[in-house]
C-alpha cells in the first residue's frame, strides 16, 4: 500500500474535488459492508487504517487485528478515541459492540475526508473528549459541504 488516508488528506486536501472525496468515502463504505456481510465488526476504523493502493487505485481497510464476529461479546474497548461510538465509550452497548459502532466510525471518517482534519484534533485531554462525545458532541459540518 502506498499511503494511509490521514497522510493522503494532509498532502492533497486542497486539491481534492467533492467528487473525489465522495469516491473515497464510497470505497470505504463498500469495504465496511464486506466486513459486515461476513457478520464481523472492524472495531478500529480510523484514517490510519484506511490505505490507498496506486496499483489497484482503491482504498482498502487494514489492521483487522481487532476485527471479530458481531455476535461475540467483548468487554474491551478498542480504537482511536475520536472514532469510537459514544455507546462504546460509555459502556451502554452492553457486552456487544455492534455494526453501528463501525458506522459511527465511518461517519467520523467522512467528516475527516470533508474537512481534511482528524475529528476533534483540538482536544488534548482524552478524558474530556470522551465525556463530550458521550454527551453528544459531534464535529460541525464544514462550510461548503454539498447538501444531499
Short description:
With 148 residues, the protein is mainly α. The protein contains 5 helices and 5 strands; from the N terminus they run E-H-H-E-E-E-E-H-H-H.
Written account of the structure:
With about 150 residues, the chain is mostly helical. The protein has one domain: Orthogonal Bundle (Transferase(Phosphotransferase), domain 1). It has helices at about 5-10, 20-35, 85-90, 100-115, 125-135; strands at about 5, 40, 50-55, 60, 70. Helix 2 runs antiparallel to helix 4 (about 100-115). The longest helix has 20 residues, at about 20-35. One of its GO terms (molecular function) is ATP binding.
CATH homology-level superfamily = Transferase(Phosphotransferase) domain 1
Quaternary state, please? single chain
Placed side by side, the strands forming the largest sheet appear as 1-3-4
Molecular shape: globular
Helix content: 25-40%
Q: Tell me which CATH architecture applies here.
A: Orthogonal Bundle
What does the radius of gyration come to? Answer: 15 Å
Tally of individual helices = 5
Q: Please report the distance between the alpha carbons of the first and last residues.
A: 32 Å
Percent of sequence in beta strands:
5-15%
SSE string, helices as H and strands as E? EHHEEEEHHH
The averaged pLDDT comes out at 89
Total individual domains? 1
Protein name: Kinase-like domain-containing protein
Organism: Rhizophagus irregularis (strain DAOM 181602 / DAOM 197198 / MUCL 43194) (Arbuscular mycorrhizal fungus)
GO cellular component, one term: cytoplasm
GO biological process, one term: signal transduction
Amino acid at each position: 500500500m502506498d499511503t494511509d488516508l490521514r497522510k493522503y488528506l494532509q498532502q492533497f486536501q486542497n486539491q481534492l474535488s467533492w467528487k473525489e472525496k465522495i469516491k473515497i468515502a464510497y470505497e470505504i463504505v463498500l469495504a465496511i459492508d464486506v466486513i459486515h456481510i461476513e457478520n464481523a465488526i472492524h472495531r478500529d476504523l480510523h484514517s490510519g487504517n484506511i490505505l490507498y493502493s496506486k496499483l489497484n487505485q482503491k482504498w482498502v481497510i487494514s489492521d483487522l487485528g481487532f476485527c471479530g464476529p458481531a455476535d461475540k461479546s467483548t468487554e474491551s474497548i478498542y480504537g482511536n478515541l475520536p472514532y469510537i461510538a459514544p455507546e462504546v465509550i460509555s459502556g451502554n452497548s452492553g457486552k456487544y459492540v455492534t455494526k453501528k459502532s463501525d458506522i459511527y466510525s465511518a461517519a467520523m471518517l467522512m467528516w475527516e475526508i470533508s474537512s481534511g482534519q482528524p475529528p476533534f484534533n483540538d482536544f488534548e485531554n482524552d478524558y474530556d473528549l470522551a465525556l463530550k462525545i458521550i454527551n453528544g458532541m459531534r464535529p460541525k459540518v464544514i462550510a461548503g459541504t454539498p447538501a444531499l
